[in-house]
Amino acid sequence: xxxxxxxxxxxxxxxxxxxxxxxxxxxxxxxxxxxxxxxxxxxxxxxxxxxxxxxxxxxxxxxxxxxxxxxxxxxxxxxxxxxxxxxxxxxxxxxxxxxxxxxxxxxxxxxxxxxxxxxxxxxxxxxxxxxxxxxxxxxxxxxxxxxxxxxxxxxxxxxxxxxxxxxxxxxxxxxxxxxxxxxxxxxxxxxxxxxxxxxxxxxxxxxxxxxxxxxxxxxxxxxxxxxxxxxxxxxxxxxxxxxxxxxxxxxxxxxxxxxxxxxxxxxxxxxxxxxxxxxxxxxxxxxxxxxxxxxxxxxxxxxxxxxxxxxxxxxxxxxxxxxxxxxxxxxxxxxxxxxxxxxxxxxxxxxxxxxxxxxxxxxxxxxxxxxxxxxxxxxxxxxxxxxxxxxxxxxxxxxxxxxxxxxxxxxxxxxxxxxxxxxxxxxxxxxxxxxxxxxxxxxxxxxxxxxxxxxxxxxxxxxxxxxxxxxxxxxxxxxxxxxxxxxxxxxxxxxxxxxxxxxxxxxxxxxxxxxxxxxxxxxxxxxxxxxxxxxxxxxxxxxxxxxxxxxxxxxxxxxxxxxxxxxxxxxxxxxxxxxxxxxxxxxxxxxxxxxxxxxxxxxxxxxxxxxxxxxxxxxxxxxxxxxxx
Length: 629
What we know:
Elements: E1 3-7, H1 11-28, E2 50-57, E3 60-69, H2 84-88, E4 100-108, H3 118-132, E5 137-142, H4 144-152, E6 156-157, E7 162-164, E8 169-177, E9 195-200, E10 205-207, E11 217-221, E12 224-230, E13 235-241, E14 246-247, E15 254-261, E16 265-273, H5 314-332, H6 335-340, H7 347-352, H8 361-372, H9 382-407, H10 409-414, H11 427-453, E17 457-461, H12 467-475, E18 480-485, H13 488-501, E19 507-511, H14 514-520, E20 528-532, H15 535-539, H16 544-556, E21 561-567, H17 577-589, H18 597-606, E22 610-616, E23 622-628
Parallel strand pairs: 4-5, 17-18, 17-20, 18-19, 20-21
Antiparallel strand pairs: 1-2, 1-9, 2-3, 3-4, 5-8, 6-8, 7-8, 9-16, 10-15, 11-14, 11-16, 12-13, 12-15, 21-23, 22-23
Helix pairs in contact: 5-9, 9-11
């Protein structure tokens, strides 16, 4: 049997985690009281410092584990125990509190306890996440029956057993340095994105004769035997592949016959990415839960909410931080769509339509009432509510997309951490936010350009969640498109959106570099290339922007269009200083800068393209450049 490990970041997966907990801890072990709805969760599942991992055998949820990092929110153990002794064990000689994490809710359903790899896989995923989050010490409180297992992994008891009335037995507090724990991490780089994991035992078959085309996998550990056959079914070759190899079902005359594990093998399934290795919390939700988000920002663009003037004091910052976290969390539950449609929100809507807990909704409503006015915004004019809904993408961009980066802000400011290595944005949240911003602020100008030039086959480089392609092709039945993105999270979102839209026959999605895809494809020619919101990344790498455009010109051939939409740097004396300065600050944290329109024009000319059009979007200092190869 294969074991698949996945860090959950979607509502159905989180619901499965809570259901497995209930089955293991309430129904099978009787350690916790049954809960209404047959799920077990708590407030710590909503925090950005928490990660839940789900193990599946086949399609069946088999086991779960939760990883939490100590911080301002505390640890799940704090809800039941005094952790003073455990935290003291995680201090340096000079008293510095080392980054500490804990593992809780480790449970495997009885029906799957005989399956090799479930417990091992959950523990390895937990260890990997702790590594990626910079944890130095691990603390746990366990039942005596698994204390022996914990000892074998390197943990040691600390203090006397703890009597816990909640579970009706004594428990054992344990601690170790993460460097001493005898659980090998999954080999991923800090801040990387990793797809679902699959563990194969010796002799297990990944693909066999007659299997339909399935997902592709990257070998992380171990070796696989591959037997290839040609289109007539005759053996063509026999190979053995190891770490780094990509395997899967092939078409076009070469059919993959069998893929068999030579020994224990760890694979990454690359068609269904998760956020296993994202430093910083993933968005999680289940009906009555709000999302855990990292944020240090104000709620929306200036003037959108007509908040009471409070100057720049601590109280203003207090409300800015709380508003941003609350509004973005409610946005994940559907608030922004309702506001954009002009719908008035009250307590009943919060509970019945957004799924806010009934006991929390009055406090949420009261706070929003004081900030927005009326009954949760009811006294504001409809057009202002709609405007706020349209601008909500900026909140999502900063809170959801750059929340993990801003969590590391003190270390980034002091030079003790660096972007990408120690802090990385959430690409999935970025894609969703960019789609929302584009829909209301940049896409109208882009649509007009495309209608003016009438291309039939479009390539979107950095396609995000494919919102642009879906919208473009929905307007023109004869049009086809290709989306490429380096982010596995974005490609997963894009593929799902294309499938939901029913446009699979006209939109291709690839995880790739746009230029590499162009160089390797032998399909229909591309009439127009879109590159939205990412050209400044190339400009920050010396020569990269010119090489990108020159290669586009070479590969596309003459007469094709290249459309660049991007954010420019602040022009002195303009009214957009506040917005652009904030955008520039975020990019400065990543070691980047923004550029003037003159730089774009010069790079386009140096690459041998001809600038044929220039248009403003509805975002300050945001512009579209149209060039012809």
